[in-house]
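Re: that chain you flagged

S.,

Sorry for the slow reply, it's been a week of failed gels. I finally had a moment to sit down with the sequence you sent. For the record, here it is as I used it:
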Amino acid sequence: MKNYKERIADAILKEKLSFMGAVLIIGPKWCGKTTTAEQIAKSVLYIDDPDSKKQTKELAAIRPSVLLQGETPRLLDEWQQTPELWDAVRYEVDHRENNIGQFILTGSAVPLDKDDKMKISHPGTGRIARLTMYPMSLAESGESNGKVSLENDLFTDNQNVFATNELSLDDIAYLICRGGWPGTLSLSPNLAIKISKEYVDAIANVDISRVDDIQRNPEFTKRLLRSYARNQGAQVPISTIYSDIINNDHKSLEEASITSYINALKKLFVIEDVKSWNPNLRSKTAIRTSYTRYFIDPSIATAVLGVGPNDLTNDLNTMGLLFETLVIRDLRVYADAIDGTLYHYRDKSGLECDAVIHLRNGKYGLIEIKLGGEKNIEDGAITLKKLQNKIDTDKMFKPSFMAVITAVGKYAYRREDGIYIVPIGCLKN
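Prediction finished late last night. Pasting the structure tokens below so you have them in one place:
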């Protein structure tokens, strides 16, 4: 496709197709799932094509194998609208002579309608791999120069890391509000930051009720999203969110209903909380196991809070919280590329580390996230050293790296004490 910006998921998708029969791509709306799949697919079935949708559904019900014919890998876009195709894909993968790299499925992870879910008898284990896509990282959208690699510099402890950051505080404020939606890249800044408002409206008015076929209140959805925005980056229980909604909006549903709404938002990939990291420690410090709450993209928070770039630069406290969400978004993407998992650490002594990237081979890196400024960076470095000293390196590896990721700062470099200072505008996978 003309003007297609390469995604990190491209390589992951190719790899999964090299050893699995099919790959299901899931993720938030508008993140580019179909477009990415189109770059690799050799044939495509657009199930929601209005000119053929009725016929496609009829064929799926009576003879689904016909719809699977075509050059491979064959893309089945919005597969959940014809759930019969799931078992048909599984069957084809089992019975084709060449059963590797046959299909790509995009759309929801499960059908929307309860009756449609009954049409699936097999989970697809061993045949259908899953790939989660996210909004674009700054490296993918081109705002990061990518001169510092998470895999090839930080995890290898490259002592000669050096790069110049080209992003200002104003740039970062805009990128927080614009978000990582591919469709915004061709728009003017004024129009680009309006996309997230449309996104939130679509979620609240339509998608949150369709995701599991339960009717939900749009206004309450927006109130819940605002509360989530006020509590992002924090390990707060449902009861805290409930109290926040009551205090700020005076009326709400029952606390139990909030859990239902949050689960629906997770299914839509509007929110994705970060799991707690549980390392081996030298002492018996109790680790908080609650998830840390984040939006999938910081622009969702700016939309529900009604703030723009100028508001953020005039309120650095709020901007710091939203910048953390941006960095967490990018780290999710970069961690996936190197077969890593993103965690958060906090113990009952109050020691907290914003991000931990843990690889399958047991290696890991500790990361603090700061807007910038010498004092804030030094505070981040102190936190990293405190956590490092708590880890029992007789039972697990010592950290492969420790880094403070910043919004601003002229350079990326490695300090004498071994801690990396990396502006987000220099980072890539």
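What I noticed first: Residues 138-428 form one domain.

Talk soon,
D.
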